């Protein structure tokens, strides 16, 4: 989809935009979510009796064009089973713009992630394979999502056997000019962070940066880390961030020595070379080089290879979503880490029976002695 085609479709939608108040056609049940744009409300269509999620945008801070773009893109993508469905209901009222989409009764992925623990690996695999399909479809349409994160993954079935990508407010046609500051910082690819720093150095002038599918692939890697651990891997993709700097140093060492973790399914931090023994300087160097970054220490070598593909600092060398499928042949999380994850999930489940628990945010974690502390 080109920018020109998108604008033409928006123009046609604008001509058929209905004007009415929400209460004229819908019985509002409750609020499902909110953001800077406005709110999402659970409602029932008075005429058809169909439950719907109304996404409502305040006119005071939403341009008509940006609203029409999001609706048009959402409608064009909604035929895919791993993307949230959109009804052909688009309207405006005195103060709002709105459109109707299908209801995901189990909320979003963020709500089920246990902070500092994550979700079981089986659940993470289900989520990942569906997101791969959704992003492959979206990229095939010539679009870049630019906002892949747990809050935008809607859960239709509790065990995550059906999740759907949503929220296309930042979605752009491939090749569109974008700003370095766009998107959530922990999920932003290095090229976005570099652009932000360059912009500051150039006194506010925005450098040329184009929307490419590789931005979504990086965000997919960060999202996978989040759902498996309940933490962010870093606060931002800049060498001023110690955790990202550690990852970048490890990644560069793998590239220099042409290490392929997929060739050996030994666990993260290990080495299959028998010459790597204590007291052997070459072995010590090899072990240091192979040691996983602190925040990735709970992952197997196979998982490290997966992350290495998605979280490649060079955007042109970054793995495409479908390439991730080759890493489904073995375990991703070490056994000890799995035990802690399952225990944490059970504890969270018991706590949720007493009171609803939704973490306000994730955090980065850094190892201090034998304990993990939040940054």
| Uncertain regions spanning at least 5 consecutive residues | 265-289, 349-360, 366-375
Fourth CATH level, the homologous superfamily of the largest domain: Transferase(Phosphotransferase) domain 1
* Number of structurally distinct domains: 2
Kindly state the mean pLDDT as a whole number?
83
Which fold name fills CATH's third level, the topology of the largest domain?
Transferase(Phosphotransferase), domain 1
CA radius of gyration: 22 Å
Indicate the CATH architecture of the largest domain: Orthogonal Bundle
- Ends distance: 41 Å
Describe the structure.
- InterPro entries: Kinase-like_dom_sf (IPR011009), Prot_kinase_dom (IPR000719), Protein_kinase_ATP_BS (IPR017441), Ser/Thr_kinase_AS (IPR008271).
- ATP binds at residue 55.
- GO terms for molecular function: ATP binding; protein serine/threonine kinase activity.
- This protein is 36% helix and 15% strand.
- It has two domains: 3-101, 2-Layer Sandwich (Phosphorylase Kinase, domain 1); 109-374, Transferase(Phosphotransferase) domain 1 (Transferase(Phosphotransferase), domain 1, Orthogonal Bundle).
- It is an alpha+beta fold.
- The two termini are 41 Å apart.
- The chain contains ten helices and twelve strands.
- It has helices spanning 3-15, 22-25, 64-77, 121-140, 190-201, 213-229, 242-256, 281-290, 301-310, 335-354; strands at residues 18-19, 26-34, 38-45, 51-58, 86-92, 96-101, 143-144, 153-155, 163-165, 172-173, 365-368, 371-374.
- The chain has a six-stranded mixed beta sheet with strand order 1-5-6-4-3-2.
- Helix 4 packs antiparallel against helix 6 (213-229).
- A hairpin with a 3-residue loop joins strand 2 (26-34) and strand 3 (38-45).
- Residues 265-289, 349-360 and 366-375 have low confidence and may be disordered.
């Amino acid at each position: 989809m080109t920018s020109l085609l998108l604008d033409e479709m928006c123009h046609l939608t604008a001509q058929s935009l209905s004007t009415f108040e929400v209460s004229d056609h819908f019985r509002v049940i409750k609020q499902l979510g909110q953001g800077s744009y406005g709110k999402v409300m659970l409602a029932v269509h008075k005429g058809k009796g169909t439950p719907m999620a109304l996404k409502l945008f305040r006119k005071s801070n939403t341009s008509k064009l940006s609203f029409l773009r999001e609706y048009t893109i959402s409608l064009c993508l909604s035929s895919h089973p791993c993307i949230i469905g959109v009804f052909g209901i688009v309207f405006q009222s005195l103060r709002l713009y709105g459109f109707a989409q299908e209801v995901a009764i189990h909320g979003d992925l963020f709500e089920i992630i246990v902070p500092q623990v994550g979700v079981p690996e089986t659940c993470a695999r289900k989520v990942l394979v569906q997101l791969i399909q959704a992003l492959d479809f979206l990229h095939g349409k010539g679009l870049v999502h630019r906002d892949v994160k747990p809050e935008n993954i809607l859960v239709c079935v509790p065990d995550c056997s059906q999740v759907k990508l949503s929220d296309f407010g930042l979605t752009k046609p491939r090749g569109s000019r974008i700003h370095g500051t766009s998107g959530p910082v922990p999920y932003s690819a290095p090229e976005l962070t570099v652009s932000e720093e360059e912009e500051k150095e150039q006194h506010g002038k925005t450098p040329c940066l184009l929307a490419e599918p590789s931005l979504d692939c990086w965000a997919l890697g960060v999202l996978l880390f989040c759902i498996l651990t309940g933490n962010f891997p870093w606060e931002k993709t800049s060498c001023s961030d110690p955790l990202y700097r550690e990852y970048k140093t490890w990644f560069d060492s793998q590239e220099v020595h042409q290490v392929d973790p997929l060739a050996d399914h030994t666990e993260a931090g290990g080495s299959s070379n028998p010459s790597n023994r204590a007291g052997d300087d070459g072995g010590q160097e090899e072990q240091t080089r192979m040691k996983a970054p602190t925040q990735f220490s709970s992952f197997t070598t196979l998982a490290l290879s997966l992350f290495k593909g998605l979280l490649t600092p060079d955007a042109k060398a970054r793995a495409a979503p479908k390439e991730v499928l080759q890493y489904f042949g073995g375990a991703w999380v070490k056994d000890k880490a799995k035990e802690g994850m399952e225990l944490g999930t059970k504890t969270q489940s018991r706590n949720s029976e007493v009171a609803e628990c939704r973490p306000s945010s994730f955090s980065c974690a850094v190892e201090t002695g034998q304990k993990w502390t939040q940054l």
